[in-house]
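ok so I'm stuck.
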Amino acid sequence: MRHAEKEQKSTIRVKDFLHEILSAASSRPSRTLMTIAGTILGIATFIGIIGFTQSAAGQISEKFNTLEATQLHLTDNLPKTSQKAALSFPTDSLKRITALNGVKSASLYWKVDSDVHPLSISTKPTFGSQNSTGFAVYAADNGLFDFARNSMKIGIPFNSFHVQHQSHVAVLGEKTAQHLGINDLTLPHTIYLNSEPFSVLGILHSVTELPEIDTSVVIPDTTSLKLYGKPTATSPAQMMLRTDMGAARLIANQAPYALRPDAPQNFLVDAPQDWSKATRGVQSSLSGLLVGLAVLALLIGCVGIANSTLTSIFERIPEIGLRRALGARPRHILAQILGETALLGGIGGLIGMSLGLAAILGVCFVQSWTPVIDPMLLLLGPLLGILTGTIAGIYPAVKASRISPITALQHL
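replied:
not stuck anymore, here's the structure
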């Protein structure tokens, strides 16, 4: 009776328990690696996808926030029904706007109305009345090139001297230059807007803020006023501003009064929009989709551990039967198998987390992104691995705990 009572209370020391788990994992290193391969891939995919999503969303948010916080447009508020050319911007618009605290640069520009002034853009003087299809003429002050900094492909932009003296100079958009066959300014080039000659000073790369410049000819605004008159309601004058971070909304309120304190209503202000809700929606949808794929990868790893562990148990039936014959209880077998799979899952989680973080950093380095990594990922990887291993080991552990010594003898 005493012997039976002791048998019912049999226990296994923690030290022995850990020793058995480590021995089982290290006795078959190749199988151990194959078993945790699925978990490694699953955790690496999970961590990588979350990190990629957060980093990509961070870049999206940064782009939207920069745009929201630093740029705005003012447009001449001419009645659309008016046929009269007008310019509400004063001659010293640039000086007035840049005097505002928080304004970094500004430029006044407009498209020369092709309906009022049909212009043919050519390398030879023409007297026709048809505009070059797809190409336009823009009038601008020299402040435009503050927005197009580092965008000069070759040559130089026109400057304040050219603006002040109404010079016949031009800067070409990249596609306009290709259309005209001008690729080199080593020798001087002249283009003609109908019969008016303009010396080509430079060729621009694409300007992000004004993509239409790519297919345009840009001339000084004072020259345009002299030759073609004021802008029209169809092509009104506009002013583009770049501000310090976070100052755009304030400048949007101040700019009309700085330009025309007597008639601020003459300007329509394109104030920065709040993109935060839109970006949060994009981030949420993107995160949900990719996390779903990552969970699927984890499930595949879970199935891999379960299958490998189940195969291992069938090979270890004699060993398990011997343990049962020596006094091991079903719960001891159950705990041992779960401990083994949890250990393998934890190792897979650590390796997978490391590979996932390395992949995130590598991609961000190549893309010149700022990595956005939640510190919780460092803890989440191993924990997910342990959880995956534990869940994967439940069925094999239950199966192993039900093996009796008699059944084990039949497999000897």
